[in-house]
Amino acid sequence: MENKIIDAARSVFIERGYAETSMSEIATRAGINRPALHYYFRTKDKMFQAVFGSIVSSVVPKVFEALAHKEMSIAQRVGSIIDAYYALFLENPRLPMFMLREFNRDSDLLINTLRELNVFDTACRAFASVQEEMNEGKLNKVSMQFVFYNFYSLLAIPFLTKDVATKIFQRDDSAFCAMLSEWKQNIIMQMKNLLEVK
Question: What is the three-class DSSP state of 132?
């Protein structure tokens, strides 16, 4: 039942955002009454943390695992990370907009949730590993903030602009998926240009 509630809450939060989502709506979507919902999750914040936690735990380990494979080229690692995100975003196309909205709404809640999930510790180890490669001259020395901005802006923009781009370029969903395959190669090229030692 808890997983069923989290799935229902995820769909409502992604569609409407935290502020516009009510516990009653989540209960209705899950097919239960509010007292039953409160038995599992006492507050909307706890519900949100569970939803955000389920999203993060579905992709973050794959991202950090790919980063840690130093024997792989930067192109291979970036490609693996893109594949993990594409799988998540294609299943939940509104997720990037939801994340963007929530990062701006209450960053403290998201940061605290990431801390509770021990994502910060894992992220610090992964970033330290990349930084070590930079210090050893295996990768270009680039601010990790710049790496973050470059990668996530390239990754998210097709999903954030899908509706308008579909209308402008008159594409359907199959054309969108084909474009994503090409866009993946563009992201890899951009990240190689940023990080690969010439």
Answer: helix
